[in-house]
Amino acid sequence: MIGIIGSGLSGLTAAKVLDEQGIDFRILEGSNQIGGRLKSDIQDGYTFDHGFQVLLTSYPQVKKHLNLEKLGIKTFAPGARIFDGQNSHVISDPMRDPSKIFETLFAPSKTLKDALKTLSLRTKQGEKNLQTIEYLREFGFSEQFINSFFKPFFSGVFLEKELRTPSNYFSFLFNRFSEGYASVPRGGMQAIPHQLCENFQDKIQLNARVEHIEENADNTVVKLTDGTTLLFDKVIIAVEAPALKKFFPDMELNTKARVVTTVYYKAPQSAFSDTYLFLNGSGKGRVNHIAFLSDVNPEYSPDGSNLISVNLLDVENVDPNEVLDEIKSWNQFETKNWSFLKTYPIFYAQPDEFYQGQFNKDSSRILFAGDFTETPSIEGAMASGEKAALKV
Questions:
Q1: Both 279 and 210 in a single domain?
Q2: Which range marks the domain in which residue 84 is found?
């Protein structure tokens, strides 16, 4: 019997792999629901994901372990609409969106050289020890294009504004965005973990808070806070870095997190007739990007209403009225009929440090999974779970 601690994407993917191999297991989840950070609230016909999240259709793990058709995904347009401080314009992928080729090539935020270099970026690979911002500058992109496009777009992915994230991870993501689409499923992002566990829901124990883990020669002992003691042949620990640190206080581990706040509004009508992500490329203000979710997936809101996700890369003193005032000051679309719905401050949205497959702390009976062991993404989380399960 294999024990899996945690029912986020890492733990559920590990369980799916074990299930497919006919290996018995039991999942211990400390909270009252599965999914880890992929959570959604459905209220009054609206689907509120906990933070702005998307599913990239080109992720290898997604192709391997998920059925996108059954998830009912709807996709964003490839590219983004960028606000430069005065006006907004579209920068798209001319290979997949030829109708926007001239607007993209002659966008005021980029030079023709930037456009050509963007195309060649797909064939290059960044370095682990080189920050993304340094990589883009060395590649020859203009500061204007870096500040107006790369910074707001990838700040929304990395959840940090300086683009200090390793450039080899940037290259991986850039290629995934180039080869696939950002999407959201019917029923919200929580539909992803729900699909992963559809064949083994009876093996998940909720509200099972682990207090202590101890490895010995014959098995691994897991003690719960309610006094229950469980014995497993091996244990896969698939929790976030801070939770792991509590189990193993002496383990060298960075538990710092990247944060985000998502503020939801509703509006009676759509701002645009397309499905581009809207980026604040002005370099000013707190808002990083806006997603008009109902334009992408109409099932995110009731008929006659549009759900709008506004995202900030901090969690301190976020006032929905002040956020709306900032958006109004752009004069890019009508906001007088926007109404505030909910705010979600996410204090652990991503690990600040991640190991890209170099987290070498497994023992003979304890294996580790989690996005921090790979990359802070759906791909990284699922890959870590699969890797741990295959070691069993």
A1: no
A2: 74-185+257-351
